[in-house]
């Protein structure tokens, strides 16, 4: 690469940057012309700056002959995975996570999206695909640093970005919890056995509470002992979020698992508006009778006033089919257990479908079919308890956004492999969850941008394509110049570049 002066017959001198590495002259950049030596000097200064900026990063010229190509390829010094940085790294920076100026934080987050494995496996992938060498000890030392100094900053950056994409206002939040189990036998101060949403009742676990905005953008999270009642996690997370970001008015939406009388009283005392899933079978007898007299049809809803709160009842044919299927499935399971004699007096309780059991005489456990048949009248009905000033339709529309937090947990558990967790120390457990929280935020922003740009690929598909994009680096034999080229070798990769324009 060199600067050339080319004199035209009109007397003007043209200044160009030219490359001759392929044996032929190739103009890389023209900087104009001048009739005076002073003008030419200024153009050459601009050309020199350009050369300095582009030296070592020009693309490989593959127009040369085979022998020259083979000679060039013999100088390959590196072949590394480039798609992760081109696609996910750009989004990581746009969100603002690059304010945490730590290379290991960046690598652990991005590889959680692409290769969600153990920390040891992550070090192997980083070395194999990017030639970055990190010891497992270095990763654990960084996780301790993340827990002690950067965890809060991560949530602040995520909130600020969500606020921006949502138009500068967040007044409605969605809260839910899930359980994360550990492959250990012994409990400790944090990891306790309890009701597991994943059916891992024998494994110690923790409870993860997650707060998201509309469209599922993550806002805040916290973890709790595995045997804690999930309803007691709601107020601490919401109160902290509201105080931290000085939000005056906040509407909280959560499912019936978070419903308790003490929660409702505290929410009202603290002037929160709320929309909660209601346990309609637990309402007062008079309210239950009103509900059963509604005779709603598919898609219909009705508002019932209960004391100072509103109870909205909806009916769905699809929900009725599902309720009936689940009841009959539960009944078949109970019938099998009765036949095998596995049920005892202690089995008679209100947990799940055991409510259909009764004691006949002193020893025989039987199924109460009358209670089973009575339950059919509730099939298809769902309730929502609220003090919101919104209209009935607005309340229902807002509640239906709650499925996006369920999707967040599903992505975290399946795509990002947040569990099972193998860490033992609480600070590293929290650091692991923080990395997953950050990765989920990057995933959601990728999803948002794909929708905005009308890209016909899902976020998962784009990540799969990014995993196949590599960059080759070659040292030229004569000049010792380093040249690099991102390899877009199939239509999927080229199409993705057209959509996202990541500079290849």
Q: Can you tag this structure with a few keywords?
A:
single chain; 504 residues; alpha+beta; 3 domains; 43% helix; 20% strand
Summary of the model, kept short:
With 504 residues, the protein is of the alpha+beta class. It has helices at 37-54, 66-73, 83-95, 103-114, 119-130, 136-165, 234-244, 261-269, 285-292, 317-340, 369-375, 392-399, 403-414, 426-452, 459-466, 491-500, and strands spanning 2-7, 13-19, 26-34, 76-81, 172-181, 205-212, 218-225, 251-254, 273-278, 301-306, 309-315, 357-360, 364-367, 381-386, 470-475, 482-487. The chain folds into 3 domains: 1-55; 86-280 and 388-452, no CATH class; 321-376, no CATH class.
Average pLDDT value?
A: 82
Approximate shape:
elongated
Question: What share of the residues does DSSP label as strand, in percent?
Answer: 15-25%
Tell me the helix content.
40-55%
Number of domains: 3
Low-confidence stretches: none
Q: What class, by secondary structure content? A: alpha+beta
Q: What is the makeup of the main sheet?
A: 8 strands, mixed
Kindly state the number of beta strands: 16
Annotation field: number of helices:
16
**Strand order in the largest sheet:** 7-6-5-8-9-14-11-10
Cα(first) to Cα(last) distance is 21 Å
C-alpha Rg, in Å? 31 Å
Describe the structure.
With 504 residues, the protein is of the alpha+beta class. It folds into three domains: 1-55; 86-280 and 388-452, no CATH class; 321-376, no CATH class. Helix content is 43%, strand content 20%. The protein has 16 helices and 16 strands. It has helices spanning 37-54, 66-73, 83-95, 103-114, 119-130, 136-165, 234-244, 261-269, 285-292, 317-340, 369-375, 392-399, 403-414, 426-452, 459-466, 491-500, and strands spanning 2-7, 13-19, 26-34, 76-81, 172-181, 205-212, 218-225, 251-254, 273-278, 301-306, 309-315, 357-360, 364-367, 381-386, 470-475, 482-487. It has an eight-stranded mixed sheet, with helices on both faces. The chain has a three-stranded antiparallel sheet with strand order 1-2-3, with helices on one face. A three-stranded antiparallel sheet has the order 4-15-16. Helix 3 (83-95) crosses helix 14 (426-452), helix 3 (83-95) crosses helix 15 and helix 4 crosses helix 14 (426-452). The radius of gyration is 31 Å and the shape is elongated.
């Amino acid at each position: 690469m060199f600067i050339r002066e080319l004199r035209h017959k009109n007397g003007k001198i043209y200044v160009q940057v030219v490359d001759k590495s392929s044996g032929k002259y190739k103009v890389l950049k023209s900087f104009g012309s001048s009739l005076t030596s002073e003008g030419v000097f200024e153009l050459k200064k601009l050309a020199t700056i350009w050369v300095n900026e582009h030296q070592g990063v020009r693309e490989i010229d593959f127009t040369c002959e085979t022998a020259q190509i083979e000679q060039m390829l013999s100088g390959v010094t590196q072949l590394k995975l480039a798609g992760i940085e081109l696609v996910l790294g750009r989004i990581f920076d746009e969100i603002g996570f690059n304010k945490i100026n730590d290379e290991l934080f960046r690598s652990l987050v991005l590889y959680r999206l692409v290769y969600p494995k153990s920390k040891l496996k992550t070090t192997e992938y980083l070395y194999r695909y990017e030639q970055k060498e990190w010891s497992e000890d270095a990763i654990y030392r960084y996780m301790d640093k993340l827990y002690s100094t950067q965890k809060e900053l991560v949530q602040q950056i995520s909130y600020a970005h969500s606020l921006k994409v949502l138009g500068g206002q967040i007044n409605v939040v969605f809260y839910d919890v899930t359980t994360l189990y550990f492959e250990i036998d012994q409990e400790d101060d944090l990891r306790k056995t309890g009701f597991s949403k994943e059916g891992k009742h024998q494994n110690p676990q923790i409870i993860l509470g997650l707060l998201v905005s509309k469209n599922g953008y993550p806002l805040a999270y916290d973890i709790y002992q595995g045997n804690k009642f999930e309803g007691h996690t709601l107020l601490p997370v919401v109160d902290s979020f509201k105080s931290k970001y000085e939000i005056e008015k906040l509407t909280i939406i959560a499912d019936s698992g978070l419903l308790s009388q003490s929660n409702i009283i505290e929410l009202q005392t603290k002037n929160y508006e709320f929309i909660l899933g209601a346990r309609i079978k637990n309402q007062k007898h008079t309210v239950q009778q009103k509900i059963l007299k509604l005779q709603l049809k598919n898609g219909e809803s009705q508002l019932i006033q209960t004391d100072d709160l509103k109870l909205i009842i909806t009916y769905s044919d699809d929900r009725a089919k599902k309720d009936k299927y689940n009841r009959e499935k539960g009944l078949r399971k109970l019938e099998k257990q009765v036949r095998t004699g596995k049920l005892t007096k202690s089995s008679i309780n209100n947990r799940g479908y055991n409510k259909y059991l009764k004691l006949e005489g002193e020893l025989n456990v039987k199924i109460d079919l009358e209670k089973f048949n009575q339950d059919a009248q509730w099939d298809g009905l769902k309730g929502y308890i609220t003090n919101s000033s919104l209209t009935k339709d607005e309340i229902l529309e807002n509640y239906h956004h709650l499925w996006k937090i369920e999707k967040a947990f599903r992505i975290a558990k399946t795509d990002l492999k947040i569990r099972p967790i193998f860490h033992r120390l609480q600070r590293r457990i929290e650091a692991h969850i923080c990395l997953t929280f950050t990765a989920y935020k990057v995933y959601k922003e990728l999803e948002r941008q794909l929708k905005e740009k009308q890209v016909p690929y899902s976020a998962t598909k784009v990540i799969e394509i990014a995993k196949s994009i590599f960059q080759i680096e070659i040292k030229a034999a004569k000049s010792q110049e380093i040249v690099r080229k991102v390899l877009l070798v199939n239509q999927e990769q080229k199409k993705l570049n057209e959509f996202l324009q990541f500079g290849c």
